Amino acid sequence: MTVPHDLQDPADHRSGLTNEQVIGQEELLAAARRRLDRGGGVLLHGPAGIGKSTVLRALAAEYAGKSRTVLRCSATESESHLPFLAIADLLGPVLDRVAGSLPTAQHTALEAALTGHGETVLQPDGHHGLALRLAVLAAFRALASEGPVLVVADDLQWLDRASTELLGFAARRINGSRVRMLCALRTESPDGLDVGTCLRGLPHDSEALRVAPLERAQISALLTRRGHRSLPRSTVRAIGAASDGNPMFALELGRAPGHRPYTGRQHRRPGRRRRRRPPPAAVVS
Ligand SMILES: Nc1ncnc2c1ncn2[C@@H]1O[C@H](COP(=O)(O)OP(=O)(O)O)[C@@H](O)[C@H]1O
Ligand SMILES: [Mg+2]
Q1: Per-residue DSSP letters for 193-219?
Q2: 22, 82 contact by CB (below 8 A)
Q3: Ligand 1 proximity of 52 Cβ (cutoff 6 Å)
Q4: How far is it, in rounded angstroms, from Cα 87 to Cα 84?
Q5: Which among 224, 166, 182 is positioned nearest to 57, based on CA atoms?
Q6: Distance of CA 201 to CAs 63, 172, 179, 240, Å?
Q7: Which atom of ligand 1 is nearest to the CA of 247?
Q8: What is the reported pLDDT for 59?
Q9: pLDDT averaged over consecutive 10-residue blocks of the chain (285 residues)?
Q10: Is the dihedral of CA 116, 173, 66, 156 positive or negative?
Q11: Mutate-to-test residue for ligand 1 from 26, 54, 216, highest number of ligand atoms within 8 A of CB
Q12: What is the CA radius of gyration of the chain?
């Protein structure tokens, strides 16, 4: 079967595996690596803009090299009502590889979900619902039998409900197998209840790690790296304080009118500054 093109490969800016350099977050990265090296899953959580996707992409790029298969999805709020979308993003590109290892009923159910026909033919609690759940589990197991699998899922808070259920069903049953899960979840409060709920949908040996704010010096390094080199120190300090260490807010404040990023053109060597001309004699009374 052919999976619709727009379901095969989510746009790179949403879930791409880039080698972007992360400023700071060493402890977080170390904790995530410790967990991932033992297998299981990592759930990065924190408020909007704190750096979850940045850390997720860095870890994904690192662990992609240690994986035979990398499956990716990145949910968006505007698409969260579309059933099976995340599962289609994750398993669409590998369906042909796993098709041979699925019993017919499971294959039919998975194909229906991945081609957008799932809504009409699948009853969540009925026979097809179970076939689909088992199909997703069997697909993960088939991939894991070929080598380590890395599942990268960003913005879990917007995952469609059908995919959340399917992924949870599979994740709870693939303990001990070679499937690593690397996920990110937006939470508004530090003790967000969503973290516990979400963790229950990941493999047993998963760990929730909170993404902490950056320190002032790191915010300053971020602003410099993003071209805000000409900001006075007092402004950088003020941005550090006002942003509370949130990199996205800091960058937004840096972009505020009057804080234009450095483009190379603003720079003038000392001594080459043009002097303001004296007003014409006629207007000097
Ligand atoms: N540790 C970091 N190092 C470098 N840039 C960062 C870091 N954390 C966040 N950023 C930058 O801040 C912005 C918001 O980060 P992002 O990862 O999208 O946040 P979140 O996914 O938590 O909403 C992005 O422009 C990102 O490049
Ligand atoms: Mg993000």
Answers
A1: HHHHHHHTTS-TTEEEEEPPPPPHHHH
A2: no
A3: yes
A4: 5
A5: 182
A6: 21, 7, 14, 36
A7: 12
A8: 97
A9: 36 45 96 92 95 97 95 92 92 93 92 78 62 94 94 94 92 83 87 76 90 95 88 89 95 78 47 44 35
A10: positive
A11: 54
A12: 24
Q: Is the CB of 54 under 6 A from ligand 1?
A: yes
Give exposure, 128-146, as e/b (b: 16+ Cβ within 10 Å). bbbbbbbbbbbbbbbbbee
Amino acid identity at 139: A
Which candidate, 151, 150, 108, places its Cα nearest to that of 130?
108
What whole-number distance in Å separates Cα of residue 113 and Cα of residue 121? Answer: 9
Question: Residues 6 or more apart from 52 whose CB is under 8 A from it?
Answer: 44, 45, 46, 154, 184, 185, 186, 211
